Amino acid sequence: MTGSHTHRATSEAYDAIAPTYAQLFHDQLRDRPLERALLSAFAELVRTNGDGGVADLGCGPGHITAHLHGLGLNAFGVDASPVMVELAREANPRLRFEVGSMAALDIEDGVLGGVLSRWSLIHTPPPDVPAVVAEFARVLAPGGHLLIGFSATDGPHHETQAYDHTVVTAYRWSPDRLAELLRDHGLVESARMVTEPGPTDRRQFQEIQLLACKAW
């Protein structure tokens, strides 16, 4: 499946489940104190480097974009699903949301203070990920910060692994391999949070969040 076909299939799949998704995940940070703390740290780092905007890429119904706004960031959301974007606009009428592709962002070079990619990269086939990472690097200002979340592979000998996501096929990444890919594009890892799955979690995958900074 080509990149454009993958983008369209993902968009259509999330269009179909958008209202249910919004209802299920609107308060998902409530029981995630470590993730809230990481987002707060991300916001503080972005603010210390200026007042550049922050793009929440794969924003879904906008709940995390609104959280970032509450942390004092000039945050806006981008999502491939028009229905998700419409729900985000309805829920957060004062914030900006756009339909778009992470592989071709309608954002000028070097203008953003931060990029959040929270489990939005997982549906991108691995051969297409370098182009998306290049877009992250392109739109970030020097000293800007990227926070990227994803599920880990079963071990370092697996660079990527596909799995049967509830919505559409998704991919897990070796944290070291993805950090290397970020570094290849001038995004240097500064921190890493690893969350172990709970005993009753349906998928026994580690959750990884990498924080990286664009080189000056």
From TrEMBL:
Name assigned to this protein: Class I SAM-dependent methyltransferase
Coiled coil: none
SUPFAM superfamilies: S-adenosyl-L-methionine-dependent methyltransferases
Domain Methyltransferase: 54-144
Pfam family, one: Methyltransf_25
Domain of life: Bacteria
Species the sequence originates in: Streptomyces meridianus
InterPro entries: Methyltransf_25, SAM-dependent_MTases_sf
GO molecular function: methyltransferase activity
